[in-house]
Amino acid sequence: MSQTNPPPHRPPDDMRKPRSDGEQSRERLRLAAMRLFAEQGYARTSTREIAQAAGANVAAISYYFGDKAGLYRAVFEGMCPAPEANIAQYDQAHFTLREALLGFYRQMLAPLQQDDGAQLFLRLWLRERLEPTGLWAAEIDNSIRPEHMALVRVLCRHLNLEQGDDEVHRLAYALAALAVQIMVGRDIVTAITPQLLATPAAIEQWLHKLARYGEALVVAEQINRKEGTA
Hints:
The chain is an all-alpha fold. Helices cover 70% and strands 0% of the residues. The chain folds into two domains: 19-78, Arc Repressor Mutant, subunit A (Orthogonal Bundle); 83-228, Tetracycline Repressor, domain 2 (Orthogonal Bundle). The protein is elongated, with a radius of gyration of 24 Å. InterPro entries: DNA-bd_HTH_TetR-type_CS, Homeodomain-like_sf, HTH-type_TetR-like_transc_reg, HTH_TetR, Tet_transcr_reg_TetR-rel_C_sf, Tscrpt_reg_YbiH_C. Keywords: DNA-binding, Repressor, Transcription, Transcription regulation.
């Protein structure tokens, strides 16, 4: 009598396939938190609200992020590009001044060309400045400072200076301010002249205009130095 071998053991389907439930749950929590933190601020947003908005339980926040502070940090830092990636767009020795400024403004205005999540992050960024939790100070040290110093290097290169002085730093802040005004005042621009931010092409035009405005500021600094008024 022949003996029939038993069929090979097969694990259940949910054990054979890598599960993505955890990643999806974590991302839902992160997106829900970003929206609520941006709308209400850190202090006024509860973990219960976040969990409810994400369709998860409160324990999931502890599991994936540790606590509300850990979730907030994950939201804030997750939306900040590495400074090296931003700097690479404008601090290149072979770039002309126009190319460097175009790259500088492109990385600054990148959130305006992205989806609603990026717009929420701009609101969260403003809230962190108005209601600091400590992450803004870290952002200055870890991202804004190195990016500013990279711009100073670019300006020194094109002003034929060995190192930056106070006037070069002033110039760097002024150049950044051109873009910051558009980012921070986006609602004002949209209310008064909506066509200026309505499409990706409109924002692309801003980049080229800002680069030219920036060149004029650099030329003004060159004139100041020749006249001894730097």
